[in-house]
């Protein structure tokens, strides 16, 4: 993984832009989330500035006069880090570095990438994050970035650099990107091999806005020792466990990286092997924080990401989590009406988890198919294969051969029919 200095304890100023169609309340919510992101990265937020714009300034995003004012205000507050809630173009980042002197300027994408680097643990996650980070950094290189031969960058780092050194660093980054892409190809092949072995299993994938309680629910259901922290993107790695819902229903449950609005595109692209668990799921369990005022906004964000991944045709069960944080019964009923067929739980308190497992069983049953098959006694290998990953309801040894009545997921039955035809 790329070594880097963290932005721990640096004073930060947040910048929100009110564009056409946005309300002050909406920008406040977005800046609340940006502040949580900044705190997760280790920064201390000391102020917020909002600016209403009719059109985006191509040089500074918000206009030269306002940009100068923000820099001056940052100096007065001893701010070391200015964070925009929107993504800045490479040109805009470079322009800010020219006028900001010793104050770093980050956009939301850069901040999210900084957090991902901090939290990546496995080889797969670090490879994915490093690739996304370097692709983000390459067009934004300026004299304020650390010498890459000595230390391979870092969004929160800074040092003097001449133009010649920037060219050297660009070449280093391109070489590293090529190597990381090759590493990811190997990882994706390994995942594909693992996926083939799991094709006969009914797969359920937990998705949700970051910090909605997915990992807590995963641990409550499986008993697995997974990393849980009350912060954004506490875990980046997909964890998969086998879970027996009852005596005849077993699933593979996966917990994936949390979603968030304005997730950097290159991050989604580099994480496609991790997110493939969602794409190959038979059922998606969308975990929602029902105590959050932005719950509907979170649903829209998750739905948009699922569409972007072409996973929007997979059946979804909505789980309203953190009911223990709500005392207003009328509010709970109102939310439940907004999400028909949803399940209300508290993963933290282990409340109503049986309702969720029952709902998953119900979905499994609707996805199951029962067929009758007949084989000659010479087809021993085929007989053994078709009984894998299914429930054998009846087995009869008759004169003309072996008769089987089997029940399994539609995908598994389709595999069996294709293999014997």
What does this structure look like?
By secondary structure, this protein is α/β, with parallel strands linked by helices. The chain folds into three domains: 11-122, 3-Layer(aba) Sandwich (Rossmann fold), CATH 3.40.50; 198-365, 3-Layer(aba) Sandwich (Rossmann fold), CATH 3.40.50.300; 368-420, Alpha-Beta Plaits (2-Layer Sandwich), CATH 3.30.70. 43% of the residues lie in helices and 20% in strands. The strands form three sheets. A six-stranded mixed β-sheet has the order 6-7-5-8-9-10, with helices on both faces. A four-stranded parallel β-sheet has the order 2-1-3-4, sandwiched between helices. It has a three-stranded antiparallel β-sheet with strand order 11-13-12. Helix 1 links the parallel strand 1 (11-18) and strand 2. The longest helix is centred in the middle third of the chain and has 35 residues, at 163-197. It is elongated, with a radius of gyration of 25 Å.
Which helices and strands occur, and which strands form pairs?
Elements: E1 11-18, H1 24-41, E2 44-52, H2 64-76, E3 81-84, H3 90-99, E4 104-107, H4 108-119, H5 123-137, H6 163-197, E5 202-208, H7 214-222, E6 239-244, E7 250-255, H8 265-270, H9 272-279, E8 283-289, H10 295-308, E9 316-321, H11 329-338, E10 343-344, H12 353-367, E11 368-375, H13 380-386, E12 391-398, E13 401-409, H14 410-420
Parallel strand pairs: 1-2, 1-3, 3-4, 5-7, 5-8, 8-9, 9-10
Antiparallel strand pairs: 6-7, 11-13, 12-13
Helix pairs in contact: 1-4, 4-5, 5-6
């Amino acid at each position: 993984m790329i070594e880097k200095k963290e932005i721990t304890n640096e004073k930060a100023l947040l910048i929100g832009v009110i564009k056409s169609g946005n309300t002050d309340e909406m920008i406040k919510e977005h800046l609340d989330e940006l502040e949580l992101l900044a705190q997760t990265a280790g920064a201390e937020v000391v102020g917020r500035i909002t600016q209403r714009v009719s059109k985006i300034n191509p040089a500074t995003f918000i206009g030269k006069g306002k940009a100068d004012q923000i820099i001056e205000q940052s100096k007065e507050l001893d701010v070391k880090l200015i964070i925009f809630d929107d993504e800045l173009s490479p040109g805009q980042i470079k322009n800010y570095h020219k006028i900001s002197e010793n104050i770093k300027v980050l956009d939301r994408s850069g901040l999210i990438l900084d957090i991902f680097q901090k939290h990546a643990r496995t080889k797969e996650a670090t490879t994915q994050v490093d690739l996304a980070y370097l692709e983000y950094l390459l067009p934004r290189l300026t004299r304020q970035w650390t010498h890459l031969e000595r230390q391979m960058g870092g969004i929160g780092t800074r040092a003097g650099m001449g133009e010649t050194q920037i060219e050297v660093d660009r070449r280093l980054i391109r070489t590293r990107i090529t190597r990381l892409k090759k590493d990811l190809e190997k990882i994706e092949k390994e995942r594909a091999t693992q996926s083939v072995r799991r094709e006969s299993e009914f797969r359920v994938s937990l998705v949700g806005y970051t910090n909605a309680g997915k990992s807590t629910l995963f641990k409550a259901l499986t008993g697995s020792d997974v990393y849980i922290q009350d912060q954004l993107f506490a875990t980046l790695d997909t964890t998969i466990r086998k879970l027996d819902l009852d005596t005849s229903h077993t699933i593979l449950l996966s917990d994936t990286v949390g979603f968030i609005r304005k997730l950097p595109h290159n991050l989604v692209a580099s994480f496609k092997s991790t997110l493939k668990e969602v794409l190959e799921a038979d059922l998606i369990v969308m975990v929602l924080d029902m105590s959050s005022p932005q719950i509907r906004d979170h649903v829209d964000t998750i739905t948009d990401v699922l569409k972007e991944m072409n996973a929007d045709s997979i059946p979804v069960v909505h789980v309203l989590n953190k009911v223990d944080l709500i005392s207003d019964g009328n509010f709970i009923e109102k939310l439940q009406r907004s999400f028909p067929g949803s399940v209300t739980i508290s993963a933290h308190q282990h409340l109503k988890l049986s309702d969720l497992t029952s709902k998953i069983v119900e979905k499994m049953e609707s996805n199951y198919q029962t067929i009758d098959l007949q084989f000659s006694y010479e087809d021993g290998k085929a007989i053994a294969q078709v009984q894998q990953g299914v429930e054998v309801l009846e087995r009869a040894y008759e004169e003309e051969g072996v008769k089987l009545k089997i029940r399994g997921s539609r995908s598994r039955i389709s595999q069996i029919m294709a293999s014997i035809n």
